[in-house]
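Morning!

As promised:
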Amino acid sequence: MNTPDTRTEAATCDVREVLDLVADKWSLYIVSNLSDGPWRFTELKHAVDGISQRMLTVTLRRLQRDGILTCTVHEVMPPNVSYQLTPLGASLLHAAAPLIAWSNGHLTQIAAARTEYDQSLSQSNRTNG
Amino acid sequence: MNTPDTRTEAATCDVREVLDLVADKWSLYIVSNLSDGPWRFTELKHAVDGISQRMLTVTLRRLQRDGILTCTVHEVMPPNVSYQLTPLGASLLHAAAPLIAWSNGHLTQIAAARTEYDQSLSQSNRTNG
DNA sequence: CGGTATCCAGCGGGATACTG
DNA sequence: CAGTATCCCGCTGGATACCG
């Protein structure tokens, strides 16, 4: 068992099965929001901007199934359901934190790269007819 | 300008624009493979198991547009095209490394959580009719 | 060798209406 | 309040054929 060096661990096919956890449209938002503690369904719906009721339910179930969060139902009227990260979920958020930070830090750089690429494309289009 | 504490940076809507870089089916594989240095098209096609010619081209163009990698064309016969990470791409891979490592380390735990969840579902189905 | 072009199936996900 | 159910559109991505 060697200690891994600076070399990045390879992303194998198995990894994608797990990366799909956060590779969909909403999971990382939800997990990120739950870092504070338990949230109720409607609170999440307002916090996660633009999510539909259906996708919130679907995504929560998926994350619950994968052991990322727990769903606690208080059977009162009106119903009270709260979601919070499991230790596994917290560790996922912890692992994703550098990538989230990287995203926040490189938004403008990437936007610039896109603009430059698109412009160089339209330039060559004019040149080549 | 406060120094961020242990609290995870929030994933805002902007972030998804960037996370989409790696949230598709193939990007992270390709970026991960390119950590070694420049690769040619066909080499990548063999390294990234299961990818089609079309998806390799599409994904490489997207990553190139976003400034993650560069495409160098040697106009000889037969054609020789090599791809390699930009500094931006290398920093992306660096930021994604913890998440990739987390995925590798929790494959079994997540599979177990899924099995347990599915079994508890079928149990309650039998109970409730 | 390294692409493009075209066609098409599957599913992610939005809108809407209904329920306990 | 916290969901389900249904419909449907668009995009991702696979298969295949052709090109410089």
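The two ends of chain B are 58 Å apart (CA to CA).

Hope this helps with the figure draft.
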